[in-house]
Amino acid sequence: MVVTIDLLSVLTGLLILAGIVLAVYLVIAIARLIKTLGRINTLLGQIDAPVTETIRQMPDLISKVNRISADVGTITESAKTSVPTVLDDVQTVTGTVRDNVTSVGSAVHDVSDGVHGFFAGSSGTAAHIGSIMSFASTVIEIMGHLFPKKTTRTKRRTRR
User: Fold this and answer.
1) Is 121 left (phi over 0), alpha (psi -120 to 50) or beta?
2) What per-residue confidence (pLDDT) applies to 160?
3) In this structure, is residue 3 part of a structural domain?
4) What are phi and psi of 66, to 5 degrees?
5) Domain for residue 136, yes or no?
6) Any residues with CB less than 8 A from the CB of 132 and at least 6 apart, and which?
7) Measuring CA to CA, which residue among 65, 103, 89, 98 is closest to residue 153?
């Protein structure tokens, strides 16, 4: 028995089968694409109002940012002029405090020496009088440091 199969019929059958598979694949791909486009359309509908509102607010936001940068520039310029003055004042105050602490320390030392000399019992009254005078001058010096004369400063700073 001899069976003859036409090669053209086999190729045509295979081609039809490949076409059917390709058509099914394309239908599935198009269905997925339509589903994805539907989701994108829904998302665009949801963000449309916020994006429109943000775009509407952009000019006002830009003007506020411009005002803020101008204020920062003004503050920076003001800091350039006032910070060195403040630092000079701080340096002056710390120098004064250092001098006062040194003077008080020296005065305490002198008081200690005066009290020691006063109660040590020297042989002459001149030494007692010298000790008393030294003690009194040290006490006056301490009082001068504790209660300094108040001075007024006429220097004023201008604000911008």
Assistant:
1) left
2) 47
3) no
4) -65, -40
5) yes
6) 118
7) 89
Q: What is the DSSP string of 13-27?
A: HHHHHHHHHHHHHHH
pLDDT tens by residue, 10-51: 999 999 999 999 999 999 999 999 999 999 999 999 998 888
- pTM value > 0.70: no
SS3 153: coil
Using the CB atoms, write b or e for 63-85: b if 16+ within 10 Å. Answer: eeeeeeeeeeeeeeeeeeeeeee
Does residue 64 fall inside a structural domain? yes
Question: How many structural domains are present in the chain?
Answer: 1
CA–CA distance, 74 with 60 (Å, rounded to integer): 21
In the numeric block, which tokens belong to residue 93?
Answer: 């105050």
Block residue for tokens 């504790």: 146
**C-alpha to C-alpha distance for 112 and 46, rounded to whole angstroms:** 86
pLDDT in tens, 110-156: 777 766 666 665 555 556 666 677 777 777 777 776 766 665 555 55
The token pair that represents 11 in the structure block? 């190729």
Residue 116 falls inside a structural domain: yes
Question: At 142, which amino acid appears?
Answer: I
Boundaries of domain holding 100: 8-146
